[in-house]
Amino acid sequence: MSKKKRSLPLHCNLPQDPDAVSIADSEAAFEVVHDTILNLWDTVNKLSSIQPPRRERYRVTLFGSARIHPNTPIYSGVRHLASELTKMGCDIVTGGGPGLMQAANEGSVSADPEDRTQSIGIRVDLGFEQDTNPFVEQAYLHRTFFSRLHHFVLSSDAFVVLPGGIGTALEALMIWQLLQVRKLQNTPFIMVGTMWSELTNWAQQYTIDVEPPMADPADISIPHCVDSCDEAIALLREAHEQWQACNDRESELSD
Residue 41 and residue 180: Cα distance in Å, rounded? Predict the structure, then answer.
């Protein structure tokens, strides 16, 4: 006697979740995705409000061109700049790639034979200029420029902008704006080279010397524009001494 085949139960008549959204309803599905992304930004903003702990070492980020070759005057100057900062006890942060980023990381490593400081590279996932330079001791990789720029801000006590292209300009203008709106405070922002002094002249001409003005005159004085890496070293030496004095006072109060 053959057994009767059992059919699987049908679920088409089960009650549905009233909050469920059909993928076929493109407008409703888009609204769910949109609201979810906005909630994720709220989460990121809340996490960003957590301040990192006090660092043991002053940390300087250097922005600059990936296309400058070794054995050029600017490469040597940036390597010297990073070496002098490392001798002060500073960590060096760059974008981790070639060119002036490599010069800075190289200067950091060469001046630190006992490995007391860090040479850091914060990369972004590009289709070119992919390799991390060989002088990076601690590397990070980001998928987006947004998260990478945010990482620079969280990781740095001072910024130095060296000659560079569109990417360097993006980094420089973001730091400038954060200082303008006081999302960053008491953070040295030094721009090296005539291209940046000419940028501040342009900003003066087209945002201040117009009617009505489109910026505050104090905004133009935020960057410290200098002609040479040696001038940048002098400014950072003073900033580092002030930072160290504050850290010493905080340590005494916490003991």
Answer: 23
Judged by DSSP in three states, 241 sits in: helix
Query: What pTM value is reported for the model?
Result: 0.84
Report the 3 state secondary structure along 70-134: CCCHHHHHHHHHHHHHHHHCCEEEECCCCCHHHHHHHHHHHCCCCCCCCEEEEEECCCCCCCCCC
**CATH number, domain with residue 179:** 3.40.50.450
Give which of 236, 204, 240 is closest to 221, Cα–Cα: 204
Q: Give the number of domains in the chain.
A: 1
CB atoms within 10 A of CB 150: 15
**Contact status, residue 99 vs residue 70, Cβ threshold 8 Å:** no
What does the pLDDT look like over 68-81, one tens digit per residue?
Answer: 999 999 999 999 99
In a domain, 81, yes or no: yes
Domain that holds residue 189: 59-194+222-254
Calculate the alpha carbon distances from 172 to 145, 218, 225 in Å: 13, 17, 12
Calculate what percentage of the chain has a pLDDT beyond 70: 86
> How far from the centroid of its chain's Cα atoms is residue 179's Cα?
14
Asked if 215 and 207 touch (Cβ cutoff 8 Å), the reply is: yes
Residue 46 lies in a domain: no
Cα–Cα distance, 241 to 78 (Å, whole number) = 21
Residues paired with 121 in a beta bridge: 94, 139
How many angstroms separate the CA atoms of 97 and 106, rounded? 11
Is residue 29 situated within a structural domain? no
